[in-house]
Amino acid sequence: MNRVQKWSCTGALIERTFDFVDFNAAMRFVNRVAEEAERTQHHPDILIKYNRVTLGFSTHDAGGLTEKDFSAALAADTASIG
């Protein structure tokens, strides 16, 4: 879990909320996350509230957290910078 320190863990889910300057910046981030999710075939739960985006990762077919979730979280952290 220390690889994704800004993420919280609740049961079988890791989650993080990202704040952006406005709606457009938030949507650019969501689109970057969506592209990576399609590439890796590992899709997050996404909640958008204007300039705030909350992502949640869990490997449902494995019944909990796997390496896929932590890799996806790291990719989302990187996507939040660009």
Summarize this entry quickly.
The chain has 2 helices and 4 strands; from the N terminus they run ββαββα.
Helical amount among residues, as a percent range?
40-55%
What is the name of the CATH topology?
Gyrase A, domain 2
Largest sheet: 4 strands, antiparallel
Whole-angstrom Rg: 12 Å
Question: Hey, roughly how much beta strand do the residues contain?
Answer: 25-35%
The helix count comes to 2
Gross morphology is: globular
Q: State the CATH class.
A: Alpha Beta
Number of domains: 1
> What is the N-to-C succession of helices and strands?
EEHEEH
* Overall average residue pLDDT: 93
Helix-strand makeup class: alpha+beta
CATH superfamily: Transcriptional coactivator/pterin dehydratase
End-to-end separation: 23 Å
What does this structure look like?
This protein is of the alpha+beta class. The protein has a single domain, classed as Transcriptional coactivator/pterin dehydratase (Gyrase A, domain 2), CATH 3.30.1360.20. Helices cover 40% and strands 26% of the residues. It has 2 helices and 4 strands. It has helices spanning 23-40, 67-81, and strands spanning 8-10, 13-19, 45-49, 52-57. The chain has a 4-stranded antiparallel beta sheet, with helices on one face. A hairpin with a 2-residue loop joins strand 1 and strand 2. Helix 1 (23-40) runs antiparallel to helix 2 (67-81). The protein is globular.
